[in-house]
Amino acid sequence: MRLTGTGHASMRIDTGAGSILCDPWVNPAYFASWFPFPDNSQLDWETLGQVDYLYVSHLHRDHFDAEHLKRFISKKATVLLPEYPTSELEDELRALGFNSFLRTKSNEVVELDGGLRVMIQALTSPTDGPIGDSSLWVEYDGVRLLNQNDARPSDLEIFAELGHVHAHMLQFSGAIWYPMVYELPTAAKTAFGKQKRDRQMDRTIRYIDDLKASWVFPIAGPPCFLDDELWQFNDIHGDEGNIFPDQQVFQDHYTELGYDNSVILLPGTVSEVGVDTCETTQPVPDVREFFARKEEHLREYQARSRPVIEAAKASWRHPEIDVLAEMKRRIEPLLDESIYLAKGVGGPVRFDLVGYDGESVESILVDFPGKQIRPYGDEKVRYRFRTERALIEHLLHIDEVDWVNSLFLSCRFSAARIGQYNEFVYSFFKCLSQERLQYAEGWYDEHERAVDAEDITLGDWVVQRRCPHLKADLTRFGIVEDNQLTCQLHGWRFDLASGRCLTSVGHKIRAHRADEPAPASAGSAPASAEAESAG
Q1: Could you tell me if 223 and 244 are in contact, meaning their C-beta atoms sit under 8 angstroms apart?
Q2: Is the dihedral of CA 450, 456, 461, 466 positive or negative?
Q3: Mind listing the pLDDT tens digit for each residue in 286-307?
Q4: Strand blocks (E) in 244-332
Q5: Ranges of H-type helices in 400-497
Q6: pTM of the full structure
Q7: 419-446 burial, b if ≥16 CB within 10 A, otherwise e?
């Protein structure tokens, strides 16, 4: 099985029974904030795009690059489609000219021509991508690969049961705006960033240890930031709180832990993976030296990309749009329909829109309890976001239904909040369409009614086996220290004596000391889902 790195989470898989191109991303994403690093625009995409199968893991724009897919990827390719609850991914691909689809069933192996076997696991909670994220398992001639990319499954057991995996691709770096955009003292921001960076690494190592693949390929990040306004987010400043470490940083950390089976997949890297071997050819003479000169490469990349960034910025302004009126027209009907999301937010959210002059501000309130959009008065708010008016105008102009995986991932805003992180704020702004909202409401309804009856013992405590957040298996991801439980899948923490979630509102965990009898209410349903990890 030949693997060719094509940048970020993208790769081409070649076998004797056909080729698969995964997640090709070249053009900047999220308001021209994210660029793939290293630069992959100079690859021979005319050739790379001539494939038998296309796999797009989910609709995040650093995985789904519509412009690139339309221009370079063969429309004869059969799309390996994850089993998602909405048709959005298929609809978008059809609009680009793809018309051959293999609709897979989650966790079911599909036998393709020539002995090629694939399986896609689809994750479908509202917090997984925009209503979905997925992993691709591939087998040919006894060699098995798992492309986990961004996905965070509760465990990898189903893949391990299919046989030993020889190549494991997975995310290790940040893909979020936290904590960089929060209006916090520098020391606090660094401390929170370091916690997140460490947690990312720990989660990646946990997945690697679970699967025990022969070879590990760190992929799906980090992006780079080429706009001068965002340059500080690149991990080149010696900031231990930067959440975007690169592949070499991860490999060094991995090596320090005693592992020696990682391969860095640059654009143009070719790895021939066999049952017992992995022969790799790199496109640069010395990978470590390449990353040592990262800032130099970024500056050259920035110079090449400046016209693209400036052209993007020039397209955002739409002064003809009355933002308040359009938000009322589009969002109020969704607020009116929302039950779980509105209740979960539990208070008003404020948007401060900075005008074209960089000084004037219009403040708009999204009043979740009152189910209305209106000018801000003098109310206390749960969350406050500050961004350029032009960005909101652009979202309204293109009728964007997912403000999280557009505005928020752009990092072109600042944020402040009162209290803990709140999952429903972001879930709502991912679901600005009736189809998405109805799915999310139904998912939370089902999730709230579910009762986790199985208990496990962790240290001196008996706790429910599944994390109240997104059902991670705590036998794999749970760690107990000082009477607190941390679920390493998303970093959620719980006070075991009270069951209270320390990370967010809601999600009480069932727990009692192992040397004490279980309380009479231990079998009751967990508290309603009302919070989210910081990514």
Answers
A1: yes
A2: negative
A3: 999 999 999 999 999 999 999 9
A4: 270-273, 278-281
A5: 409-410, 423-430, 434-449, 474-477
A6: 0.86
A7: ebbbbbbbbbbbbbbeebbbbbbebbee
